[in-house]
Amino acid sequence: MPSVDPRLMANAVRFLSMDAIERVGEGHPGTPLGAADITTALFARHLKFNPADPLWFDRDRFVESNGHGSMLLYALLHLSGYEKITLDDIKRFRELGSRCEGHPEYDPTCGIETTTGPLGQGIANAAGMAVAEAFLNRRLGPGIVDHRTWALVGDGCLQEGVGHEAISLAGHLRLGKLCFLWDDNLMTDDGAIELASADDMPARFRLSGWHVQEVDGHDIEALSAAMLLAKSDPRPSMIACRTVIGRGIPGVEGTRAAHSARVLRNHTEAAREALGWNHPAFVVPDDVLGAWREAGRRSLPEHEAWQARVGALPAEKRRELDRLREGRMPEGWQDSLRAFARRAAAERRAEYGIKTSGDLVDLVAEAIPELVSGAPDLEGATQHKRRMGAFTSSDRGGRYVHYGIREHAMGAMMNGMAAHGGVAPVGVTYLVFSDYMRPTLRLAAMMGLPVRFVFSHDSIGIGRNGPTHQPVEYLASLRAIPNMLVLRPADAVEAAECWEIALTNRTGPSSLIFARQPLESVRGEAGANLSARGAYVLAEAEGGARRATILATGSEVALAVKARATLQAEGVPTAVVSMPSWELFERQDRAYRDQVLGRGTARVGVEAAVRLGWDRYLGEDGGFVGMSGYGASGAEQELFEHFCITPEAVAADARKRL
Amino acid sequence: MPSVDPRLMANAVRFLSMDAIERVGEGHPGTPLGAADITTALFARHLKFNPADPLWFDRDRFVESNGHGSMLLYALLHLSGYEKITLDDIKRFRELGSRCEGHPEYDPTCGIETTTGPLGQGIANAAGMAVAEAFLNRRLGPGIVDHRTWALVGDGCLQEGVGHEAISLAGHLRLGKLCFLWDDNLMTDDGAIELASADDMPARFRLSGWHVQEVDGHDIEALSAAMLLAKSDPRPSMIACRTVIGRGIPGVEGTRAAHSARVLRNHTEAAREALGWNHPAFVVPDDVLGAWREAGRRSLPEHEAWQARVGALPAEKRRELDRLREGRMPEGWQDSLRAFARRAAAERRAEYGIKTSGDLVDLVAEAIPELVSGAPDLEGATQHKRRMGAFTSSDRGGRYVHYGIREHAMGAMMNGMAAHGGVAPVGVTYLVFSDYMRPTLRLAAMMGLPVRFVFSHDSIGIGRNGPTHQPVEYLASLRAIPNMLVLRPADAVEAAECWEIALTNRTGPSSLIFARQPLESVRGEAGANLSARGAYVLAEAEGGARRATILATGSEVALAVKARATLQAEGVPTAVVSMPSWELFERQDRAYRDQVLGRGTARVGVEAAVRLGWDRYLGEDGGFVGMSGYGASGAEQELFEHFCITPEAVAADARKRL
């Protein structure tokens, strides 16, 4: 136990934060000042961590879900000894190039376990981390994985829908090593919490099966005792820590201004006076810094013991652990996918997109034992969970999470699992419901997390469920997300290829887009992974130089093939280009792209979706056959006729551009 | 009170539903069969409605939030006498052209008050309708507006985050005329509710201040009594109706299969046997149909009395009521916007985008007394709510809703307000948070609702908050939504023009996109609304035929103007095209578009966002200066330099394409 009064340690957090915010002229002082005592109690007494080995696989995870209070996290990390968060970074808080960015950006090598800022995401990430922990604890044994996940939580996180989804599900799954520390300061950016909420928040947690305590958020001993109790309870825990926002600045603390108002020199001076902190800006006295560094070394014995246990593992187990930590797939994971592709190429059967999707999830789940999946209340409709057992409060060995009707929580929990490491999260739902989890898709892409989504029911091809369930703008809106790999296979061969690409992509999320309706076979061979180039000539023009090029994705590729047959029969040499992934195509060299696109030929794009983005490949005189508005409720084939997405329409469009 | 046993009326609902679902071979029988008794109690005893006047402004609103059970709604509407829902429509359930679509599609002329299907939306729409009612009740008086909003709710709606947001806020706002009827059937598509939730749902509502009752959902008398009690309580009410899913089909009722499994002939036969319903498919016996039609006439005296009160209104009040019902703006509403534009054109001041945005919201709020707005916990940062009072549980005259940190609920409640009519909802938040409400943007566009969003902080120009708060893909993803009008003004003149366009657009939503940083003046005149053409030549090339065209939107237009000056100085006749709205530009004729775009000239697009979609205007040899990945945390001007979005970069790009 450090010999320095922990209140001084908390004040060191306060003044580093305050000085940094004052210096740059902006930031959110409310959280760093208000929650300094809470987090000091955690870091100095309970958090299992080792700043000298930030990637220690069995460390406790700490998430600052109210990410706007980022200086709190940077101060804690710097003080406790993370070398990559330097005093200079703190002095350059919010300056270009500083690691101390406006909001915490995912970088576990310096203790930032996830990107936070968009509210509610962090606590749902934390729930995902706790799932990963429980799963790996069961799989690798408690000697290898046995840690807690802590999240500092603000009112915003608890008002956002995704927060509610995570609370309900974490309670239901009885994630006992998850603990939320609620910075209950009664204040939001707009003013007093009661402007917008009168919820009994402790009751909110209790009704979902959480263990709840309420303590003085400035009493470090009481906080520490509550954390101890939380650790001993088998339920997830919420500690409501009543705090004064911006605590420490006379005249500002406890007011709305403390949330995000500017901190001026006279504020920091008054705080120094009030708290008896007689040190210049950015100076932490040696004894206090020493106590913090001692706190950072507190878990060394546990770290050493863990290393010893890992060192004593049988070679095979050790290799497995290393593989999981590094996020590598098991040897030969591609084999079954490739065999599937070869079989599909040989058989050339038309197959429901959804059946192919389900078959492939089965295959990859079998090949990758750390794959953890789920399809929010659509396991039947998406043909998912045919072989995986459920991950439940009583069975941590299952690999299928019943997320309930909570797509947003699924996305955020997948991000948490991927950030934790050791599991390979897959999420399955209808393409239209990707909008419910869209903030999480963006964060996965921004963090570069290898999460994989299967979005099925991808067009009007779903038929009678009508326009609410028929995506038209989703391919475009997914393609707009930087670092999101969008893959829309045309048939079972491309589907297997796309899965292999998605699992190979370790630097960002992948979206696999599947039709519900039958996909006719368009590929009779399955040698090289043609989808890996993003777009390729599926059928070259015959009988002369190419005069027309039809570009298509997914279910519309078979339609393009039929249109080509018509045009060829009319003596128009026509090529079909299948474009499963625009992002991959953009990575090819100019010569390849020009050759595939057939610049100078009559070009027509076909996709049962909006045109946005297609012009890049069609040139200024190209045509497009697709959707310009929402779908309708009716039989699938009737809908394609109704919206004029037919081989005839494509051939006609090409013809007039010759 | 009808003389027929109401249980027979409920069975009429069951058999119409079952027969329709059997006929088409798909649909969701669980809800129509399980909730037939609940809704019969409502329609036959409590709902204030008049099928002969579906648009009666003071009717109760009924929302089937669990929209997948759509046959329930169609059966209720047909039986109670809505002429536009014919028996033929029901026989053609889910067929192309039938009004009985897979999910209910908004059409108040036949009793469909909102589009439902994506779960949770309907109950949040209902909360918005209740806000509209409370606001208009205060504004027009209880003689004119005094009705209830009822929503049938499934488990999915209560698990989704948006549902939680709506529950919290409706309780906080004490929307006493809102009543949720929870079809508590313990079953979801995946199986028993306990697979994914153990929440104490009545407690969930109570902690947010709701009145809660629990009744047998098949006991029509008990249900009716609970509804009576709900009506007398000043809090919003939730009636937990314990039901058996798919009630009526032996062997299927109460099972997972009842949710959405196929209904076969042997099922309907067994149900007829079990319920003693000896009528052929689609036949409702005269006495039962008579009782239903009588139920549909139950509110005639109230309807007549209401018409008499409206008829007795002073002429001016009557005109005001008609205006509100028809969704027309007040006379002269554009005047202040036009004066603002003229003043801005004369003064040519650089002004913070966010200041201009706030000024304009003030202006339109003053001009349009039925405008109801809100900016989820960002009233300060978005310079919103400077003059509007708050709409609260004790003051229904306020026009600013403190939504809390609940963007998704805001979007859905705005849709509910617009569907209700009589209010003009505006929602304000950062552009990045539009993702949190994205499902509602799509539904607003699909329903064609005149809702207006102000999305501020629109690029890396926000500076130090970093990438989580810097939109890069959002303009593209909004432009992808059919029927969403996206408007990104370049300066204060265009901003006023865009607001006028948005308020004129009554057939769909509009998104007004604002920079946070200062916008330099680019327009020195404000005569005709140039933004209304979507794109226009802001500065034509000088000194010869145009050789280069720079196309830009928003904050990048001023940058384009600077690049043009450089190129002109070098002797390159260069035009700048401002493109505040792509959608409006697409509506112009080909000649205008070609003239503006300068086909054949060296073209460069500039937008601090991703390229997706831009190629349509740049041709195959055009250039683009913008973002290809996420932003960074730093000072705004440094970021533009860092990401090479500068006049120099634009000029250089144009130069190499000459």
Notes on the protein architecture:
Two copies of one chain form a homodimer. The first copy, chain A, is built from 27 helices and 21 strands. The termini of chain A are far apart. In chain A, 42% of the residues lie in helices and 13% in strands. Chain A is α/β, with parallel strands linked by helices and 658 residues long. In chain A, helix 1 (6-24) packs across helix 13, helix 6 crosses helix 18 (407-420) and helix 17 (353-367) packs parallel to helix 21. Chain A is elongated. The mean pLDDT of chain A is 97. At the A-B interface, helix 7, helix 8, helix 9, helix 18 and helix 19 of A face helix 7, helix 8, helix 9, helix 18 and helix 19 of B.
In short, what is this structure?
Chains A, B: Pfam families: Transket_pyr, Transketolase_C_1, Transketolase_N. 2 copies of one chain form a homodimer. Chain A is an alpha/beta fold and 658 residues long.
Number of strands of chain A: 21
Strand order of the largest sheet of chain A: 1-2-3-7-6
> What is the SS-derived class of chain A?
alpha/beta
Strand content of chain A: 5-15%
How many alpha or pi helices of chain A? 27
What keywords describe this structure?
homodimer, 658 residues, 5-stranded parallel β-sheet
Which SSEs are present, and which pair or pack?
The structure is a homodimer of 658-residue chains.
Chain A: H1 6-24, H2 30-34, H3 36-46, E1 61-64, H4 70-80, H5 87-91, H6 121-140, E2 149-153, H7 155-159, H8 161-172, E3 178-184, E4 187-188, E5 191-192, H9 201-206, E6 211-216, H10 220-232, E7 237-242, H11 257-260, H12 265-275, H13 286-296, H14 300-311, H15 315-326, H16 335-347, E8 351-352, H17 353-367, E9 371-372, E10 390-391, E11 400-401, H18 407-420, E12 424-430, H19 438-447, E13 452-456, H20 474-479, E14 485-487, H21 492-504, E15 510-513, E16 518-519, E17 536-539, E18 548-552, H22 556-569, E19 574-578, H23 582-586, H24 590-597, E20 602-606, H25 615-618, E21 623-625, H26 636-642, H27 647-657
Parallel strand pairs in A: 1-2, 2-3, 3-7, 6-7, 9-12, 10-11, 12-13, 13-15, 14-15, 18-19, 18-20, 20-21
Antiparallel strand pairs in A: 4-5, 8-16, 17-19
